Request: fold
Amino acid sequence: MRELVAEGYPGTIALLEDAEATRGAARALSTPPGWQVCRSYRGRLALVAAAPTRVGVDLERCEPGLHPAAVCTPEEQRLLPDEATRARWWSSKEALAKALGDARAYEPSRLDAPARWPAGRSGRWRCQALALPEGYVGFVVWEVPERHVP
Amino acid sequence: MDTLRLERRPSAGGCLLAGPPAAEPSTLVEVFARTCARHGDMVALEEPGSGRSYRYVELDRAAGALAARLATAGIGRGDRVGVQVPGGTAALYVAILGVLRAGAAYVPVEHGESAERAAAVFDEAEVQAVVGAELELEHRRPGRRRPGRPAPSDDAWVIFTSGTTGRPKGVAVTHRSAAAFVEAEAQRWQLRPGERVQGALSVAFDASCEEMWLAWRHGATLVATPRQALLDPEVGEAWIREQRITVVSTVPSVAVLWAAATWHQLRLVIVGGEPCPEVLAERAAGSTELWNTYGPTEATVVTTAGRVGPGPVDLGTPLAGHAVALVDAGGVPVGEGETGEVVIAGVGLGRYLDAALDRERFAPLEALGWRRAYRTGDLARLEGGRLVFAGRRDDQVKLDGRRLELGEIDAALARLPGVRAGAAAVRETPSGSHVLVAYLVVDGAPDLVSARRHLEAHLPVGLRPLLVAVPELPRSTSGKVARSALPWPLEAGTGDLEAGGELASWLAGLVRHELGPVPLGAGSDFFALGGSSLAAARLATAIRRRFPTMSVGTLYAHPVLGDLVAVLDRLPRAVTTAPAAGRRTRRRGVQPAGVLVAMVLVAPQFLVPLLAFNAFVHRPWSVTVPWWQLAALYAGLVSVPGRIVALVALRWAVAGWIRPGRYRRGGAAHLALWFLDRAAEALDVGAIAGTAWATRFARLLGAELAPGARLGTVPPLLALLTLGSEASVEGEVHLRTWEVAGDELVVGRLVVGAGARIGARSVVEPGAVVGAGVEVEPGSAVRGVLPPGGRWQGSPAHLVGTAGEGWPDEPAPRRSPSARRRASLRQAALVLALPIPAVVAALPALWIVLAISRSSPALWTSCLRVVAWSPLLYLLTAVPYAALVAVAVRLLGRGVRPGLHPAASSTGDRLWLAGQLVDGARQLLFPLYGSMLTPWWLRRLGARIGRNTEVSTPVGLPFLLHVGDGSFVADDVVLAPVLSWRGWLRVGAVSVGDRAFLGNSALLEPGSEVGDDALVGVASTAPRRVPSGSSWLGAPPIELPRVREAGPIGRTYAPGWRLKLGRASMEAVRALVPAVAWVALIEGVIAAFDQLVTSGGIGLALLLAPVPLTLAALGAWLVTAAGKWLVVGRFREGVHPLWSWAVWRTEMVEALHDHVAGVWLRPFAAGTGLANAYLRSMGAEVGRSAWCESWSVTEFDLVHLDADAYVSEDCDLQTHLFHDRMRSTGAVRVGAGATLGPRCVVLPGAAVGAGAVLHPRSLVMRGEELPSGSAWQGVPAVPR
Reply:
């Protein structure tokens, strides 16, 4: 297990790389009371993010097959993203949808990819790409408490 | 072609075909320069996605700038430059032209290509640099430092095709060849300057050169087309229609998917790259010219071309400068009727970068004396002078229009771990599409999943063969793989998909139709089975016939067939629609008659003031009518009681026979109800909403209202309405007792139970039953039955809680019967007195008119003088009126505290009166809205508005409004409507922070707080508390963070004084022109009535009232249309900041449309052919028999209503958005026979498919497309 760093992020993010123990370990991680926890698994990796605010984390493999019409807004489709970009956008959308609460309420083709937010900011939301092993992409999205929004 | 020669060489025993002589040597740069000189101001290139376009001179400049950068880097003639820029962008074409201008050859690689393949191509071509997506240069090796324009002998491009060894092979084509090809095509096809050519093909595919140069040779416009349009046939067709494209070059397998309407639009279609099926000729029958072309990359794109007509398709005849011969294996020309290999010679011959390969494939053809000829490997024969394709000689195949060497695939297969041998073959499926099948001989158990992953890294993008494990590969006697003996069709295997029921079995049939007889299970992955993007598009198209909301995206998201079946099961089924012919009945005769009657109903509103004026002031040309006649006219058709009586009479006379049920759209019931809407507009009684008179009116119209029911909305004239005791309907509720859906008119009774509440701005659909005590929150859409006691919100309404939360348990105290009578009389008096402020304010202006009349010798002299004085007359009326309204509203608002008040109280009366005055001011003082003066004006009415805030046309009581600095409140935002429940009224303030954005038609309930930098989207209901920095969309709202639009700060939030001065000037003109037109039209109509009364009394004036009113409507039309074309010309898609001339010019046209045509033409024309003609004259595309009642149109040229489309009143065909103070515009399309219910909003770039139904209060998001025949509802819209 190793800890990942995201600038300005008020909580912790752990990357677990053990193929066998990943899921159990991810569940066993303890967090301070009142913190929100979000997990994401792909293959032999797991990400666990915890923070004293709304937080979402997502981990994807860079695999082809994400069609623009399925994962991009019409505006994003016009930008003609390649496979790698689509995977990044998709992962950041997943992280945001989890942070927002009911991820199923969010149709990806109607959600602007946080990966495109200028400087990783949209109002009180922040987004950051995570440094992951090659072949993986992942994002953390969190909410800045309202009184801290500049 | 007459100029072609058919030469027979008896000595050789064969024949050859040759085109006319080639054009003089030239270069592509010279071709472009010639076009630029002739058509410099025409548009050469458009990127509709971004609104970017280049005229020829601009494109030339942009290309020149890139060429200069290349030259600075030492790159010029003889060099090669890679181009890897995303397709569908203007930058791609600028890059190509820039490289050509620099004298270098361009080497294109598709943007999404794998890094390995791109590197292989650029290394093989030894490029000096690569141009990237932002036109940035990546330098690879030093250039030859030979700056200058290219010579004909220099290479123009190097395009790579698939190679037998697994290595791609580059083909270089000189400017001489390329320019000759362009000129040769120009001999075949003449395009008009400005004609629109689709630029869709990947530039790594040489046919893209045809698209580019067809446009640029003739001064036409190349429309950069996004990749999505190629991937999804429906998107592609919609694109062709929206972009008004008339010339397309494509592959037959795409063209064969187009609908008849698309063919009808296209003038010239050129297909190539695959055998052209005969069926295409039938599709193209009509005005479309369809040509089949043939030619390898090695001979510069196209060698032969032939017009496709009925009968077998041939390859046509050679282009100028090209020659074709058919030879046998020994290189000897074959005889007529015999099959031989196609060999090409002439000006078009390119060369391979690989010298050895070049010598082999471009060897001399001794028998014809050709020193250099290209052996294509294609087989053909000559039949009666026609060149007919007869297959391939070798293993080269074409798939989805792209040429592949099976050897390259074989080599990739052989490199797979655990694979002993592999061979690929192209197989035809039952649908006629082609599938690439890879046969593998593996060691041990086959791992096809990891094999696929390896292959994807090494094969061209998009190429996904169907992998099949076989025990061994069949071989011929020479030891080569006998591809023809590879198994096909495959055994159906043990697939279990069919066992999953009827739907699964149906899907299995469709999948096999695309992929052949492959084994299918619930866990089978469509793409792993070899489904290509085109096969996916075809499958989605086939599924849409049964499930119209199916998208290609759904297939990509659910490629596993078992999952797909589950998803399909949840999708709405196709709805069948009746033939369109049923929609067009009886309109032609009945509607004009209805319009004439509506005009007669309006006439007294002009006659009464005129006759009253004449009674006081004697003018030589006027007559005075007796007072009793004047009083009778006023009482009968001008006063509110008179209007009520007239409307009740009309309701029973015209629609007394209409009962709940289903009727034909456009039939008698529909026309009767349309006429009642016109009558209700002519005899507006909106002032009685919220008073006891509204309930009395409703009962006269046939509604059943229990005691204590309250109507804050004027009931519909077809009042099939039941309201229980203490039921309450708040303001601006659409009580729909009828609606159009597809071909039907549905009439239904509405029932609102005792004590129920329908919130402001809601829509209640025919047949809805709202249970007792139910609360429907503002902005909801109600259909079906809502059981008693719940609280409902959203569109469609969802149960969100229990009714009555936050309201008192007991109903509000009611007035005693005598107090009720007194209140009713007081309200009646107030209704009658409402026009008084306007009349009093008009007295100074009337005094001037009087003076002018007295000093004028004749009526028309008087009229002209009044018109000349009209700006002053308007100001003299508007200023005192504004002052009176401001004082009255401030006084009425004083002491109104947030909280609960009995509706039957002085506070209730004050709120009603203030609302009426504010509504009236929005009409008469229109220049004060949506302008720099709006915040100032709202402050006068009691609102607190910060600095640098933009407000358009807010709805609500201003003294309850607080907006901070730098915010934006778009059109028609409802702020703090008064809520009502069992005799109580809830009043609350709305507070909006700094830099917030409220989209048009958004709704904020009383007590709402919107934080700084927050956004509430179009047509959305804001949460009670909107935190700072958050964005919300929908009803009910969901949080939706977004990407902010970046605009120049000096033109969005912090304009300089010059811009402020410019906007102020434009707004002064914008206020003045409609005001002058307004006064002039009123004066003209009154003068005409004056003449009519003088000639034949009031009777003649009423009888002939349609004459002056029609002339006024036509005048208003003329002024508005002239203004539109003079001020803006044609609206185009684009993005402009708030502080820009483009935006101000648009607002000028809006002012004319809303306040001139909207006042004089709309009330009569809505839903008629007149409205269609008007919209067409403003630039909109309106199909035959479309029915449009909406006037909410701004960028007219971006609106497309297809035949028989139906657009209800209050719909917004919204071709622009103003997020972050940037106005971005895009087209809106409503397909043939589609229906838009009331209060629907369709955002820029969105399309509603043919026959689709958008139910009331729905939002189609930007860029979304609703499939044909589907039904939708919601904010945002979801399948219903």
Residues 638-802 of chain B form a domain with the UDP N-Acetylglucosamine Acyltransferase; domain 1 fold (CATH 2.160.10.10). Residues 815 and 1252 of chain B are 50 Å apart (CA to CA).
